[in-house]
Amino acid sequence: MSGNESKFSSELVAKVNELWKRYPHKKAALIPAMHLIQAERDGWFSDETVADTAALFGLPDMHVRGVVGFYDMFHSEPVGRHVVRLCKTLSCKLRGADGLIQHVNERYGVKNGETTQDGCFTFKHFECLGHCANAPMMLVDDEKHLDLTADKLDSVLGGLS
Amino acid sequence: MIQETRAMLEFADDPKQIELATYRKNGGYDAFEKALKEMSPDDVTQEVLKSGLRGRGGAGFPTGRKWQFVPKGNDKPKYIAVNADESEPGTCKDRVIMEQDPHQMLEGTLLAAYAVGATTAYIYIRGEFQKSIRIVEDAIDEARAANLIGKNILGTDFSCDIWVHPGAGAYICGEETALLTSLEGNRGYPRIKPPFPAVEGLWRCPTVVNNVETMACVTQILRRGGDWFAGLGCEGSTGTRLFCLSGHLKRPGVYELECSTDFTLRDVIEQIGGGTLSGAPIQGVMPGGSSFPVLRADELDCGFDIESVAKAGSSLGSGAIMVFDDTVNVRDVVLNISEFYSHESCGQCTPCREGSDWVRRMLKKFQTDGPDEGDIATLMDVTDKMDGTTICALAVAIVWPVQSFLKKYPEAFAEKVTA
After folding, report:
1. Among B50, B66, B263, B327, which has the minimal tally of Cβ within 10 Å of its Cβ?
2. Quick count: other Cβ atoms within 10 Å of Cβ B279?
3. Among partner residues B92, B168, B187, which is closest to A131 by beta-carbon distance?
4. Residues 6 or more apart from B316 whose CB is under 8 A from it?
5. Contacts of B246 in chain A (CB under 8 A)
């Protein structure tokens, strides 16, 4: 914890200060800043993190809570060390996404939104992730894995720690 | 055989094209430099008007006309917002430009800013596209260091900054007014139009919202001339366009094609897409993303241009051609589409928030149990009432495909007759 003004790291506050310079109104930097905040706070927005974010921006808690709830990339519950987002929209469905979802359910014991028992990863069905010509696909954190098969998926998920 | 015409993708296969030096060696920023030094802002707009360019995000509005809506002599700041929230199902082309030739988008953005007098541009990239975000941010840094972005660009009195603004996962933010609401730091709620963004956009200031591919086209037009662009493709669908072929095809991919009335949508699916992977007959095609009516296999002999596909009862939309063969149950296909829209409804308008989820539940029932007597009429009635009763087009983006599936595949939705 750095200083009195903010409960975030000084690095994060410095980055948010840079973001604020890009817009005529500070509020516009909220979503870019929330990506940084979520990463610093174990990947999710607790009540405390919501309140700290709101304080940093001078906004009501409810505004931040509303933004967390609206956008699929922000989490209001704890997540695993990694987040696995598997695309389930039409192009991926036509190339076998349903089978991969079933494979993950059975092999790793997690359904949509659940985290593995060892806390390794949270599994999420996601709507179109924009790689339709390389379907099916998934994102593991920021990395994309294209033209996915059950074998490929296992080798990626097996390498996570 | 239909061939690709590579203009936007001319250098896309060179991994060094993302670097400023290579982009410049290949003629990059020459058009921008020429515009700054030899053309008036209005000359730039006139060149784009001459080209016949229509926006590549899905609605197909003429780009030059959109720019002309920006009020002149207004002392409010003006903004550009580049729509890189690519998330219409089946669409995966803007990402190709951002990951493989990002300066082409930035050059078009600068040209648009010069044309309308904007001093700041934001590239709103969907948050899931981390690779695009990294590459575009690096490209901006390089261009800024070379005085192509920033204050007094290339020694002129034109100044323009460009920033990447990441989204956080919401399809609705690809709707231009929702994008602006989101960029201002809110839930991405669409706004009532008019006022249109060109008059009242970001922070109630004039804002041009253009798609990534549209910006790449602007670069091509100023590089090679409006007449060159207008001479490609066909009337109403000029230039080249990136098409995303996906689904049950042998050769899914992103292809740069000219539109034409000399060949058909079927020709593109067969010659470019290679037909179906399994060899099974085509059952249906969503020719422009999933927000428009489906075309049955016997409706694919229309010309391959905006007007012809519209006459056939659908739309080329965002250029996303999704093909499914007869091994899949159309009940599963339409349920999948409805799940997407009911998940992505922003919740602002009651007919869409309640209606999209009701439609999804109804289609889930059809998938498992089949429709009961009277169900289809009820579903048609409810969806009719969602059409035109909401702020934005997301509601009709579920109504049109759902109604089209029910009408075009009646055998798959036969009602159980109760004794």
Report:
1. B327
2. 8
3. B92
4. B60, B237, B259, B287, B288, B305, B306, B309, B310
5. 91, 94, 132-133, 135
CA distance B46 to chain A (A): 30
Residues A55-70, mean pLDDT to the nearest whole number: 98
> Which of B76, B97, B128, B341 should we substitute to test contact with A (largest number of A Cβ atoms within 10 Å)?
B128
- For B60-76, the pLDDT digits (tens) are 999 999 999 999 877 89
> What is the C-alpha separation between B181 and B112, in angstroms, rounded?
21
With a pLDDT cut of 70, the percent of chain A lying above it is: 97
State the ipTM, two decimals.
Answer: 0.96
| HSE toward the beta carbon, residue B159, CA cutoff 13 A | 5
Residue type, B38: E
Burial of B207 (0-12, 13-18, 19+ CB in 10 A): buried
3 state DSSP class of A140: strand
Domains and CATH numbers, chain A: 5-70 (1.10.10), 82-158 (3.40.30.10)
Give the Cα separation of A124 and A97 in Å (integer): 12
**Contact between residue A123 and residue A84 where contact means Cβ atoms under 8 Å apart:** yes
Rounded to whole angstroms, the Cα distance separating B34 from B32 reads 5
